[in-house]
Structures are given as C-alpha cells and as structure tokens.
Amino acid sequence: MKPKTLIPDAHRPQLPPPTATFGIVLSSTPRGARLARLVIAERLADWNVHRDSNGFNAAILVVAELAGNAVRHCADAGWDFSVQVSMHPTPSDPVAPATLRIQVTDACPERPVRIAPPPPQDSESGRGLSLVIGLAVRWGCLSLDRGTKSVWADVVL
User: Fold this and answer.
1) All structural domains of the chain with their residue ranges
2) Nearest Cα to 67, choosing from 77, 55, 81, 47?
3) Cα 122 from chain centre
4) CB distance 28 to 74 below 8 Å
5) Mean pLDDT, rounded, for 133-152
6) Which CATH class is domain 29-115+129-156?
7) CA 114 to mean position of chain CA atoms
8) What angle do the packed helices 30-46 and 54-74 form, to 10 degrees?
9) How does DSSP classify residue 145?
10) How are beta strands 5-6 and 99-106 bridged, if at all?
11) Alpha-carbon dihedral of residues 85, 91, 94, 97, nearest 10 degrees?
C-alpha cells in the first residue's frame, strides 16, 4: 500500500478586491453540508450569477465537495465549519467573467490527501478532490491557528 501524500500548504494568489462577499458558519453534520450548498446557490443567484451557467454549477459542486469533506473528515472534532465566498472581477476586462473564491474552514488540522490511484469504479466516494481540481482554476489548503485549516478554490463564473 502506498503511503498517503498530504497536500502541502499552498499560497493563495492575490485577487482584485471583491465586489461581493458572504460567509456562513454551519454545523459539521450532513445537514450543514447540504445547507452550505443551498445557501451559497441562493447567494450566487442574488449576485446575478445565472443558475444554468457552467460557472454557477461548477461553484456549487465545489462548495458541496469541500463542505462534504469538512463534515466527513472533521465531524468528530465537534466543531462547526465555515464557508466564505467572494466574487472578484477580472481587472483587465470588466466584461470578462468574475472569479469566485470559495473557502471552507474546519477544525481538523489534517490537510487533504492526494490520492495517487483512482478509487475503484464501483466506489461511492474518493472523487471529490478530483472534481475540485477539474473545476477550479486553482485550489489549495492553508494551515491556520489552533489546528484549523482552510481549503480554498477559485472558480471562473
């Protein structure tokens, strides 16, 4: 069996100042993960991101995966998790699609594991980070104070 390779801390690139931000703290339960997806979907719609756009769907899937991972891997810690989203314009072209930065913070210090071999075809889990990697233009993990971490991803809307 291959040893697990943890994702190293990644420096988040600086984005232009956000035009909109939102954050919410939720319980580390399946209901909390579901609420993260629903609440962020409503917020994006409020920000005039079209529900049928590829960017909207990619952002919601990334939120669902990161929130689900926070619940799945860190619920035993007994702490809540938070989701923050911020919309950033493209500085050189105001008509170009914005970038949505998604950040999920939890009380579990373990960073995500890079899985070298794909999961078995009949497996019901193990593909979440692969989806995030495929949908985000960049992503990473930051270790924070008191044993917490944030997993973040930038999605073009």
Assistant:
1) 29-115+129-156
2) 81
3) 25
4) yes
5) 88
6) alpha beta
7) 16
8) 160
9) G
10) unpaired
11) -50
In the chain, % of residues over pLDDT 70: 81
Do 79 and 11 touch, CB atoms closer than 8 A?
Answer: no
Contact 149, 142 (CB under 8 A): yes
Is the Cβ–Cβ distance between 131 and 64 less than 8 Å? Answer: no
Secondary element (H or E) of residue 141:
strand 138-143
Q: Report whether 63 contacts 37 (CB < 8 A).
A: yes
Give the model confidence (pLDDT) of 2-58 as tens digits.
Answer: 444 445 556 778 899 999 999 999 999 999 999 999 999 999 999 999 999 999 999
Query: What torsion do the CA atoms of 136, 154, 112, 82 make, to the nearest 10 degrees?
Result: -130
Q: How far apart are CA 136 and CA 59, in angstroms?
A: 8
What one-character DSSP code corresponds to residue 113?
A: E
Both tokens assigned to 141:
């993990």
Q: Buried (b) or exposed (e) across 44-83, using 16+ Cβ within 10 A? A: beeeebeeeeebbebbbbbbbbbbbbbbeebbebebbbbb
pLDDT in tens, 55-75: 999 999 999 999 999 998 876
Q: In angstroms, rounded to a whole number, what is the distance separating the alpha carbons of residues 13 and 79?
A: 28
- What six digits make up the tokens of 36? 């993260």
